[in-house]
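Students often ask what a holo structure prediction actually looks like on paper. The answer is less mysterious than it sounds. You provide the chain, you provide the ligand, and the output is a string of discrete structure tokens encoding the 3D arrangement of the protein together with adenine.
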Amino acid sequence: MNVADLPKVELHLHHEGAAPPAFVRQLAQEKSVDISKVFNAQGGYAFNDFVHFLSVYEQATSVLKTPEDYGRLTTAVLEESAANGVVYTESFISPDFCGGGDLGAWKEYLHAIQDAADKAEAAHGIILRAVVTCVRHFGPEKAKASALCAAETAGDWVVGFGMGGDEGQGRQGDFAYSYDMAREAGLRLTSHAGEFGGPDSVRDAIRDLGVERIGHGVRAIEDPELVQELIDRDITLEVCPGSNVVLGVFPDFAAHPIERLRSAGVKVTVSTDDPPFFATTMRREYQMLNQAFGYDADIFHTLNTTAAHAAFCNDETRARVLKALETT
Ligand code: ADE
Ligand code: ZN
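The corresponding structure tokens follow.
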């Protein structure tokens, strides 16, 4: 059996970061927005490093101007994920991009996204849940508006709160107010840490924000005590190997610490982050891990079961996901 054919759970996917370049080009044309600098000669996204990537990401996202655009994006993203065998995905969706932090506008965006997700579930069986995200380099004040949007729409569909953006700016603890608000609303918590920041960033996310999952977290490998702490606290890492390689965190798959973390006993899962930006897909991630570390169907099944248990959805949805992992 080809491991790429296995059913998959993806916990770390940025909604705009999953936008196919052709989709973004089409919207840019419809809206007469010039985003030619976003693309390379081959028509893919073009960037030199992490900070440049974030800027290109935001330029590409600028073509998404209405709830309807986000509905169309959701359809495109979920079709691609379903074609990759993904049965459940948690997508990072940011009120900063969906209505600029205004609660009324956010609800309209959310409605359009959810409507498209319902249709995709009916057509392809794929289940989507939302993790509302603040953007670190937009600062703690904007994050509060995002947390309020998250808290006001928390439930069975908006299931978590997280933070992406430039890990080089500020500290995790600067966002504690927003994380407290989200926690009080019943949302489950994750944050990008240990991607471009070192082990201290992961420690800060755990202690200052109280997260139960970490986006990336892979640089924890630099500190054996932290690796043990991740195990002791039962924290799940949302690992995105292909993203880390393209952004230069590690030179190649063989040098990636996912296997060292896994064999040490850390709960790891596999995601794509921003697949077209990093020329990857879930199928490709599985193929690359199979080549680099010999991951077979049994190991992937364990990783997917771990992901299903770490998913922020309710238990009824989790049971459906676990069943899809057994039967698909
Ligand atoms: N936003 C989109 N992709 C991201 C990443 N890999 N790290 C931080 N913020 C992001
Ligand atoms: Zn990410």
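The first helix runs from residue 21 to 30.
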